[in-house]
Amino acid sequence: MTRNIALNDEVSPVPRLPAALAGRSIVLVGLMGAGKTSVGRRLAARLGLPFVDADSEIEQAAGCSVGEIFERYGEPEFREGERRVITRLLAGEPQVIATGGGAFVCAETRAAIRREAISLWLRCPHSVLVRRVTGRPHRPLINQGDPGEVLARLIEQRHPIYAEADVIVDCNDDGIEHTVSRVQQALLSYVPPRRLSVVLPSARYEVVVGDGLIDRAGALLGAVLPQKRVVVITDETVAGLHLPRLLASFGECSIACEMFVVPAGERSKNLDQYAELVCGLLARGVERRTSVVALGGGVIGDLAGFVAASTMRGLPFVQIPTTLLSQVDSSVGGKTGVNTPQGKNLVGAFHQPIAVLADVGVLRTLPERELRAGYAEIVKTGLIGDAGFFAWCEENGAGLLGGDIGLQSEAVLRACAFKAAVVGDDEREMKPNDGRALLNLGHSFGHALEAEYGYDGRLLHGEAVGIGLGLAFGLSVRLGHCDGVDRERVLNHLHGVGLLAELHQLNRRFSAESLIGHMARDKKVRDGRLNFVLVRGIGQAFTSREVPREEVVALLREAGCEA
Ligand SMILES: NC(=O)c1ccc[n+]([C@@H]2O[C@H](COP(=O)([O-])OP(=O)(O)OC[C@H]3O[C@@H](n4cnc5c(N)ncnc54)[C@H](O)[C@@H]3O)[C@@H](O)[C@H]2O)c1
User: What is the rounded average pLDDT of the residues 116-122?
Assistant: First the structure.
């Protein structure tokens, strides 16, 4: 038996670090006395990596002790030298690096660590730190007064910054080997978020995708918020489920946070709610560097985005989308706005976010119907310009809708990458043909259906888009652009995952004239002519202004509409 275990150990050793962390240095941060050097040395031995103490490197380079550098040249000079040494260490082979307590506080050093390494904060309570540093003469900052008071002040100043570390491990006096094991375990279970850069003519930002990002929102946004003050706009449902965690993460990083909670659903996306929010922000005395954070689905993103776009002529804006639809579509690209009695999204602005945090973990609380509705926008992406992605959907759609976080992350990244590429080419939808307007595949019909229901929640946006996709393929087949086989394949997939794809499934009689009337009031009208996104096949969408009205009427009648 013993022999078997030994053999197994040899054949499949326990991985020392997950593959995603391989090749990166591990930088330990935290206050003096947290144990960065002793933990770091043992951690390095366990991981088979070299260990280096940044302070010792600095002393070697300067030819004197840290205390002497402080005394002779002052703290700013020391920090500059420290930054240079750490940058040099980060450029070398992967290793475990213990840093001095102030290193991570320097924004430039922090940025370099963020780029090149994994940062890990050894978080220690005040009492433990005091016991460990008292009577140690070589710590320059401690010599400035009573250790308890100095450490309390440093905790207040630095903990909110250490909280930006990738991984946090709580340390107590439970023995160094225990601490090292917990550090190792934390590194093993750390899944770095995936990132996508959106590069547009007017802006550049990152979409960060991962599980549990809301708990780390303060840390993840630390580098991009122009001011450590935010206003969160969310809805009642999302507030109950996810707001406390967001507030806690902002609190941990000392980001001042105010909030506005609006009723859930499309009915909040109107001019009255918009005006109330703008006046609310102004009454709270927001400044031009205060960021607006949208925590919610597409309704909140569109509403909060428009509030951000227009308050004081534009406030920084962060998207934390919480529905699948908003993660794969509405949070990227900068379209914001509200509905009016005349139609959907007719008042609004282009306003790009400074960051998008797509926490796929929040999809666990999303009702199944909402998840499925969001999936329609993923399918749409493949149908517009990525036949391979549509095939991926056919293979993985059921698993994604079944709650597979890995598949959900993959779909969010792929859909956002596709949207970012299209938007990057035509940010303000000015191209007459085949630019950003392609993203509206299925939306002319979808928006008309939503308008018929009066946005009252009986038909969700994504559900309307699903039917719209079916009709867009139907129209394309009717006009001779697309093979009927492709339409069947699309309908099969939509039906297969439980999405509505055909008008008759709504069990309601519509008037073709009334639906076309809604389309005529839509933004997609150019020079008074209806604009449609059609397809030549799966993954081959194009815009057309040549669609005869009678063909649309005939299609709708065939689909079960009255004249
Ligand atoms: N700006 C764009 O580019 C763009 C693109 C597509 C759609 N949109 C807009 O997006 C809107 C639709 O967005 P939506 O489908 O996300 O609707 P939504 O924002 O109304 O959210 C749907 C429902 O889910 C709830 N919810 C949200 N996150 C949840 C979670 N994690 N757990 C449990 N419940 C949760 C909400 O409270 C709401 O009741 C429409 O107004 C549409 O016009 C905008």
Answer: 96
